[in-house]
Amino acid sequence: MSIAELVETWPVRTAAVGVVDRTGRLDAAGPVGQAFAWASVTKVVTALATWIAVEEGTIALDDAAGPPGSTVRHLLAHASGLAPDRDVVLAAPGVRRIYSNLGIELAATHVAERAAMPFEDYAREAVLEPLGMRGTRLAGSPASGCTGPLVDLERLAAELLAPTLVSAGTLGAATTVAFPGLDGVLPGFGRQHPNDWGLGVEVRDHKAPHWMPRSASPRTFGHFGRAGGFLWVDPDAAIACCSLSDEPFGPWAAEAWPALGEAVLARR
User: Fold this and answer.
1) Which residues of the chain have pLDDT under 50?
2) In contact, 211 and 258? CB cutoff 8 Å
3) What is the pLDDT of residue 115?
4) 255 — phi, psi (to 5°)?
5) What is the DSSP string of 211-249?
6) How far out from the chain centre does Cα 61 lie?
7) Which neighbouring-strand residues pair with 36?
């Protein structure tokens, strides 16, 4: 079954899917130019902007940020101990993997303060404009505020396969597990042992159940959003897949996304 045929079986009104390698698009389905809400897929833009800020020397990963004892590294890796959406500390830094939108927002605030400009402007100048993501806007939370078309998400995916805005070393370090061995809850998929994350992106490892394909390499990284979209990058297969839709994440996505991923990897 083709990618387009698979997407037609999804219980959504509208969805767009893209498959890219280092050279660009390999396959696509749906309205690739239509803007959708990205929700937490936004965090990939925010993460890349933060990695750029580190390379530029604007910030350092070990700068103090967030609750006492926490650093930018802790915030990006969801290891600061902060609650998901409240300014409440649930654990000491580096002890538990607690998925925290607030933590990502605080990391972005740190970049904005050091850069002396709003984070939305920093992300636009550092990421969106250089990658030609002309249809994408970040407004509101750096954890969830992007809207844009699939064609822009494809550009971001291609950048994460063959980086031009950061060094390969920075990308490799940011997509390697930070604070290994931490357990935690992966939203929508329950407790994971361990719940591995890099710096702003989730690392596939051997989690189950999961939204990425089971046959993806353990080094595969990415993010999904509750608005019904995702982006994953498999550096070993040298391929990435992304999707946006108008149907919020739910059981349909937990079944459809891994199946799509298996079909994508089977074509390599």
Assistant:
1) none
2) yes
3) 98
4) -95, -45
5) SS-TTS-TT-EEEEETTTEEEEEETTTTEEEEEEESS-S
6) 18
7) 148
Given a contact cutoff of 8 angstroms between Cβ atoms, the answer to whether 147 and 35 are in contact is yes
Distance CA 35, CA 147 (A): 6
| Angle in degrees, CA 143, 228, 96, rounded to 5 | 45
**Global pTM?**
0.97
35 secondary structure, DSSP code: E
Pairing of strands 229-234, 239-245: antiparallel
For the chain, domain boundaries: 3-266
19 φ, ψ (degrees, to nearest 5): -125, 130
- The CATH number corresponding to 3-266 among 3.40.710.10, 3.20.20.70, 3.40.50.720, 1.20.1730.10 equals 3.40.710.10
Sign of CA dihedral 114, 115, 118, 121: negative
pLDDT at residue 1, as a whole number: 74
| Amino acid identity at 111 | V
pLDDT given for residue 158 in this prediction: 98
Q: What's the pLDDT at 232?
A: 98
